[in-house]
Amino acid sequence: MLSENMQKALNNQIRMEAESSQIYLAMASWAEIKGFEGIAAFMFKQSDEERLHMLKLLKYVNQRGGEAVVSALDEPRLDYTSFRTLFRQLYEHEVKVSASINDLVDIALSGKDYATHNFLQWYVSEQIEEEATAKVILDKIDLIGDDKGGLYMFDNDMKNFTANGHNIVQ
Ligand code: OFO
Q: Is residue 168 part of a domain?
C-alpha cells in the first residue's frame, strides 16, 4: 500500500509526464508547420513516449492500492523564436523532470517504500538517456545556429535518428 505522501508525489509526476507529452506535441506541430519533417517526427515520437511514462506511473499507483489522478493540464507555453530556443527549453524541461524523479526517489527511501524505490529506477535510467539525448541535440543546434543549410541537414539527421531508434548518443 502506498503512503499518502508517496501517492501524492506519484500523482504529481503523472501530471508532469502528461504535460511533457503535451510540450513535445506542441513542438512537433510547430516543426511540422515549418516543414521540418525530421524534427517533427522526433517530437511526435517523444510525445508518445512521455504518454507511456505517464501510463506506467498511473498503472503502478493503481496496482499498489492507490488511486491515480488524471488531472487537467496546463497549456504548453513555449518560446518559438528559433529551433535553438525550442531545443534549449526541451533540455531544461528534461533536467526539471530528472530533478522531480530524484525527489520521488528521496520520498520512497525516507518512507522505506522499497517497492516504489525499485520501480523508480527505470525512470532514473530513462532520464539519464533523455537528458543526454537532449544535450547532444542542443549542442548540435548551437553549432548550426540559424544557418538554413545546416538546419536542413540537421532535420535530415533527425529523420534518420528517429527512424533508427535513439542512438545519437554514443
Ligand atoms: Fe522525459 O520525462 Fe518522462 O520520464
A: no
What's the whole-model pTM score? 0.92
pLDDT truncated to tens, each residue of the chain (170 aa)? 899 999 999 999 999 999 999 999 999 999 999 999 999 999 999 999 999 999 999 999 999 999 999 999 999 999 988 888 989 999 999 999 999 999 999 999 999 999 999 999 999 999 999 999 999 999 998 888 878 899 899 999 898 878 776 544 43
Gap from CA of 22 to ligand 1 centroid (Å):
12
Quick check: CB of 47 below 6 Å from ligand 1? no
Atom number of ligand 1 nearest to Cα 123: 4
Is 82 a member of any domain?
A: yes
Q: CATH number of the domain at 93, please.
A: 1.20.1260.10
Burial string for 21-36 (b: 16+ CB within 10 Å, else e) reads bbbbbbbbebbeeeeb
Q: Is the CB of 24 under 6 A from ligand 1?
A: no
Q: How many CA atoms lie within 13 A of 146 on its CB side?
A: 3
The domain in which residue 153 lies consists of 4-158
Number of structural domains the chain divides into: 1
